[in-house]
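Hi R.,

Here's the chain you asked about this morning:
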Amino acid sequence: MTPEDFQKVFPFVRDWISQTLAAHAPKAKSVASFNFPRLSRYYSNDLLARAKVVFVDRCPVPPPSSIGLGQFADFENMNASGITYLDTYFVLWHEAERESLHFHELVHVVQWQLLGAEHFLALYADGFEKHGYRNSPLEVMAYDHEARFNSNAPPYSVEAEVRQQLQQL
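And the predicted structure, written out as tokens:
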């Protein structure tokens, strides 16, 4: 997708995200309220208090094919366990207690926060289009941090490391 094409579709995606977050706002709860035992060793209390999670039967995904972006059909049809928009992420009900999934989605919250919506979406779309979901740079970053978390690596500031990694992209 060219930068010009992205600029044409960005307002549609931005509005879809705003409407989706507004529709789910009554069900959103702060991540801190779930008292996961390990997340606070990796993320600031401020981030855990600001980030929100919504449990759903199916993660909401914008419909790129409806605006002529057929190259993102795999993303649209993906049955994701979690997905993040701005400071809110959605998780399937049956995955609600999987701390590592929350950890992964919080990496994306940090990415959204540091990059801003437009830059995050541009990087994500470019990475997905060039490398597919699992090998897109923003997903590789989230999966790598999740793997460290799952290996019981010593605690570190994910926010600081993601900031540094994004500067290198």
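The chain has one domain: 3-168.

Let me know if you need anything else.
M.
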